[in-house]
Amino acid sequence: MQHTHTPPKRLIALTAIALAAVLSTGCEIAPSEPDPNAVAEVVVGPDSVAGNVGAVIAFTAQPRNSAGEVLAGETITWTSLDPLIATVDGTGQVTLVAVGFTRIEAKAGQKKGHGKVTVTPATLTSLSLTPPTANLIGGTTQQFAVSGTWSNGTTTPPAATYTATGGTINSSGLYTAGNAAGTYRVIATHTGGTLADSATVTITAATLTSLTLTPPTATIATGATQQFAVAGTWSNGTNTPPAVTYSATGGTISAAGLYTAGVAAGSFRVIATHTGGTLADSSTVTITAPVAGLANECDSPQAGWIWCDDFDQNRLTSYFEFETAGGLFARVAAVGNDGSYGMRAHWNAGTVSAGALHLAIGRTPQSYFAPAGAGAGTTDYREIYWRVFVKNQAGWTGGGADKLSRAMIFASNSSWAQAMIAHVWSGDNAASLNMLMIDPARGTDALGNLVTTGYNDFAHLTWIGAVHGTNPLFSAANVGVWHCVEAHVRLNDAGSSNGLQEMWIDGVLDAQRTGLNWVGSYNAYGINAVFLENYWNAGSPASQDRFMDNFVVSTQRIGCGA
Prior knowledge:
By secondary structure, the protein is mainly β. It folds into 4 domains: 41-120, Sandwich (Immunoglobulin-like), CATH 2.60.40.1080; 124-204, Immunoglobulin-like, CATH 2.60.40.10; 208-288, Sandwich (Immunoglobulin-like), CATH 2.60.40.10; 305-554, Jelly Rolls. Helix content is 3%, strand content 46%. The strands form 11 sheets. Strands 28, 30, 31, 33, 39, 40, 41 and 43 form an 8-stranded antiparallel β-sheet that branches. Strands 29, 32, 34, 35, 36, 37, 38 and 42 form an 8-stranded antiparallel β-sheet that branches.
């Protein structure tokens, strides 16, 4: 059985009474009114816009109620539906970023409105090259640059490809003028486009303002060679070596400046003249003849000679030490002056020590330093000269091989302590490796108290002033011939700084150091040892030979032969 529900009779009665009351008054029931402050829609302007990449467009948004009235004071939230195409800030400023399409959304309350954005590529509308004209000296540079305007109103400099005549130009617009006078052009073309602009360049040829020939002097043996070179300055401030024509007396010179001495001794000239110009410079060349009569030189000793070894007789046992370096240093026939006997030092590539001769003279502090020559065992020498002839083989490389010679005072009866050392060795920097230098060192304090305790006691030596020579006797142009190297040492007097060390190369003073306080008031021993050395600190760069001959120690100037 089904049941139906009916309203209660009381409720029905009340409803009827209310309806009757309404009808009796003649009123109708009105629908509810919309809220005039509620956002019904958001109108975005512009509705649709197109622009080039880089452009900035201002969008607006109007919140409106249902009556179409603009509602003031509503908060607008802006959003780009694709920020990779266009971005929007909080005020509705839209920046076009990349080619494509997107929508810009404005939200107020719960309503949204949209504007359409189409982004197209910006195109270059004008291109300018600056400066429009340039006046240059050959070899100088001028920076060019491009500017442009774009369809989006921006002025970003466009990418451009440069071409030029009369010189060269790099991808950044830096133009380098050639040296041919004339009027030329630089052209900038928009990369990937057709717009272009050009500038006019007027070039004036650079002129040579100075010319220098080096070396200014050279002393070489007959038949030897010397390389000359030129330097110059130009009106454009550069120093490119100028083209020159060489001429010479006393020998011949190649187009590249290699001078070959003739057979006549004397003073001659080398001249370099700017090709096609008037500037010139000259150098003096002194050609020395071979010294004859040096074979068996010791058979005719000169006044003041303490020791002589021409190696034509075997005197090697007279040295208190002869370091053969395993046979690398040896007395050999036909390698000396005049084809006589001489000493040959051989380095293999990488060899450091190629042997040495250690000579003691005068009075020494211990029997091991067995002296030789005049005054052996009795004389305290305060001043000596020593000379040796040196030749590096043709093709020699690497400079002076560091150690060559030294004179010293051995001052201890129990060690090899040195009161002073007069070094003669090769230069100590890249510019002086082909030269010799003198480098005096003191082994006492300034008053004369011995402070060294052993050989080469660097911690207690005082270095008192090196001087570099200027003769490049070990350069490629000067090897293969004999060079006469003579050194001189005079100790200071007690209480004075009047000592000296000096050196001659081929009879010409090459380095000098005066005013030395060698040993203070020290006088226990005089100069009592002279070494000839072949010691290359870093090792030889190649397999090669050095020769020595005619070694003399004297109390008087020796010179280079008869």
